[in-house]
Amino acid sequence: MSLGAPGRERPTLESVASRAGVSRATASRVVNGSPTVAPHIREAVLRAVSDLGYVPNQAARSLVTQRTDSIALVLTESAGRVFSDDPFFPTIVQGVSQVLDAAGKQLVLMMVNSAASHDRVEQYAIGGHVDGVMVASMHGADPLPGTLARRGIPVVVNGRPLGGTTVPYVDVANADGARLAVRHLVGSGRRRIATIAGPQDMVGGVDRLSGYRAELRDSDRRSIIAIGDFTRESGTEAMRQLLADDPSLDAVFVASDLMAEGAMRALRQAGRRVPDDVAVVGFDDTEIARYTEPPLTTVRQPIMDIGRTMARQLLRLAGGETIERATLLPTELVVRESA
User: Which end of the chain is more exposed for a tag (fewer CB within 10 A), N or C?
Assistant: First the structure.
């Protein structure tokens, strides 16, 4: 199928100017949104644009406006992890996309999981291809956000940065949410409460483990800990480890719903009933929580709102506004049959 008439030349800015009876400079100001053009001249130019089917050259327009109208979302994970069955990533992307689409901005999705890919993203952003960068799912003291910010690129990250950088971030009350979960288990009479913590190079893993420990100290119970990586498989393996280490445990707080689903599988295989023998509480309140057997008690974090808030903050920052360094969203306990 032909996408254009053979031999027909693409309309130019000069042809728009000629059609409207103005100079090329005036036509350029109208096309690039300058407010300094009289309304009747603007109308004539826009009518010529419509009549001729003129499409501005985005590269040239960017040189004039110093804007690309594109925003990057960098996920510091492999493509295999991003496109796995973990609902966190598509939900974050959906929230970001909603806000950027409403603002007329293009989302550029990038994945980083090696030094080479870090360098590519850094050079892409520094090269002026995007107006700002959001970074999510960071591991350790990732230097990328700080490097970009020092180069004058607007940056907002998901999760309190572990490296002490002053880059603005959007996070949830991870430690408070963990304390809610453990408090619920203590209040229901559970005595030996274990946890499957998330990776300790990620702020969510660190803070949820910190909240678990703090609540147990207040209730005079000892910590029983295994570490996972937020995947279903790691939840299964960690639960098997916990049962081997302490067969008498009667509850487990798991730092993600996906790991909790894996933990419940290990409990079934070991002949332990949920919640009769072992109560289980997850973290996220993704769709998974409603379809486990039994349905999962969990801590709700507003993943969609994390994405939306990151995008709004980035657009404000890219627009020259000053924004607060930390934006913290609340968590809440959602009680279902597993605890």
Answer: N
